[in-house]
């Protein structure tokens, strides 16, 4: 049980202390897009969970991050939902994909890992197949409250 498959990653493993048990909460120093530091957006806290392919954040944080990605836009799941997906152009250059500074180390996504597929594959309108869903796209407004 456990272990690491070194064929699935490059570089060193970064150990990050859990700051709130029960939620796998860690401190995030900052978020960057295109080299621009977007700051201490989450108040330091973020929940990480290897059981999901998405990263959850308050709507305000997701809005700031996606405003730094050219042509990214929100797609609310419904008019009454507090959950929103974000999409971005599938051909977004790697330097416009968000990175996270955690324990002083900049950690990012490979462009293939950031792209969760065209919105035409996840039930959205097929008139914009050049738009892709990303792992920051499932956003729950209050998921970090109290962290």
Automatic annotation (TrEMBL):
Residues 1-147 form the Peptidase A1 domain. InterPro entries: Aspartic_peptidase_A1, Pepsin-like_dom, PEPTIDASE_A1, Peptidase_aspartic_dom_sf. Pfam families: Asp. It comes from the Eukaryota. Belongs to the peptidase A1 family. This is Peptidase A1 domain-containing protein.
